Each structure stands twice: as C-alpha cells, then as structure tokens.
C-alpha cells in the first residue's frame, strides 16, 4: 500500500520543476569570526586531554567526516554513531542524527561536553584559551565579553557556514549546462526520482531537512532508537535525520551506525527498506553514477567584504 501512496504523491510533483536546488557559489559571512572559528575548529585544547579537535572527526580535505564506522574520542573511546559530514551542514534544518541541535552553534556545544568525544566543559576550555594571548586578543577584538562558551561556538559556527561545496556537475546541470551529465547519469537521476528517493532527499542539501523512520517498509535492525532518545515519544522511535547526499561518494561508511561499507549496498538497502523495491544491478549502478555527480568543489575562505 505504501508504494502506491508514494507513487501517487510523486505523480503530483511536476518534475519540470526540480525538487533539488543548486548550492550558491557566494555566501555572506563575518570573515574575522570565521577565521577565528577555523582556528578553533582545529584546536585540540577544546578536549580535556588536548588530543581531539573538531577536525579530528571532520576531515575537510576529504569528505568532511572521518571515514570510520563510529568516531574515536578522547582516550580512544568509541562513539555509537557515524560522524556526519560537516560540509554543507549549514543547509540542514537541524544537526546530529537525532536532530537534537537546532543549528550549527547549538551543535558545536555537544562534542565539547560529551564524555566520549572531547570530555571537557566550557570552564576548562575558557581557562586554557585565556592563557593564550593571541586568542585573548582575537576574542576581545570581536566580542565585547571576550572568551565565553557562547562566543566560542559562535565563531566555530561562522566558520562551518563557509564549508559549502558548490559547482558539482549536477549543480551545473541544474543551472542549465545540459552536457554536464552523461546519458547514464541522467538516467540514474530519473530512477532516483521514479523510485521515490527524492521524496526524502530533496532541497538544496539533497537531504538534511527532515526526520524519517529507518525501515518504513521493512523493519531495519538497529539498537539505536534515534529521535526517541531525545523526545521519549514512542512515535519517534527509529527516526533519524535524513542525511545529505552531497559528496556521498566520499563519506563511506554509511547510515547512522556506519555498518554499511559501500555505496552499492547503501542504495540497495534504502530502496528495499524505505520504498519497498529490489533494484536490478543495472539500476543500482546508474543511481550511483548520478550520486557521484554530487561531489562539489570546496570553497576557500575569503573576505566577502573585499
């Protein structure tokens, strides 16, 4: 029954009007705050034992994640969830797999206080940074109250807003460059729409804008209750934020628990568990060809006021 409902919903969309929009090539930021945030993003003193920074689990030179099933925090402690990419995270409606943070600034607080990740707190971090005269000068120049927890997360969030990846081949296609994609890649995009993937993976981030149950058609085996851990409402069990598919080819392994190692397996399982289809090998391959076109260019932090 769900298949027929889904097909009916999708049939009401006019695919001449795309449900995915390209990433802009220019953004407005506070450059000085972003530069401070970049420094803090790479600052291991945010962690209790000075070993872990944001960049430890979000490798910007690659896919913005760490390519591990679950991330490793202080004292080699293993987390319980796969590290989401920080690239294009500014376009998500909320942050974390369970959506518990409303924005990037709210998200930046989490790892600092998490005993498995950085295992610290703002009192300790502020004490460390206040001993660094360069940090004191930078914070005092930008914030009237100097180094505070709120200002630390504000600067980190401003930097993370710059981490966008425009000009993917698919974005160029959306912007009217018809030969940006091959025939097989376009066919993969058509399959992506026809099988209903686009019902959850849409918008500028091709995901990241809603919570969805994992295992809509068939139960998906996981011990993680997802959104329920935040709300304690039974109807939120096994609901997770729909991940962005941008740069997805670079961010293996997949799913909230990092148990899916290949993109082929991820596509096949999502088709089966979420929309109730068993894809042919040729269909899976074409969808993956499309997904590979979502890899964009990383912007270099520039002063937009120049």
Q: State the oligomer.
A: single chain
Largest sheet: 2 strands, antiparallel
- CATH topology value of the largest domain: Cytochrome Bc1 Complex, Chain D, domain 2
Task: Summarize model confidence as the mean pLDDT.
Answer: 93
| Count of DSSP H/I helices | 12
Kindly report the name of the CATH homologous superfamily of the largest domain. Cytochrome c-like domain
Q: Beta-strand percentage? A: under 5%
**CATH class designation of the largest domain:** Mainly Alpha
Shape type: globular
Read across the widest sheet, the strand sequence of neighbours is: 1-2
Backbone CA Rg = 20 Å
Flag low-confidence runs.
1-16
Please name the CATH architecture of the largest domain. Orthogonal Bundle
Overview of the structural elements:
With 306 residues, this protein is an all-alpha fold. It folds into 2 domains: 2-24 and 165-292, Cytochrome Bc1 Complex, Chain D, domain 2, CATH 1.10.760; 31-160, Cytochrome Bc1 Complex, Chain D, domain 2 (Orthogonal Bundle). It contains 12 helices and 2 strands. It has helices spanning 2-12, 31-41, 54-57, 104-113, 122-130, 133-142, 149-160, 169-174, 183-194, 228-231, 263-275, 281-292; strands spanning 211-213, 239-241. A two-stranded antiparallel sheet has the order 1-2. The protein is globular, with a radius of gyration of 20 Å. Mean pLDDT is 93; it is low at 1-16.
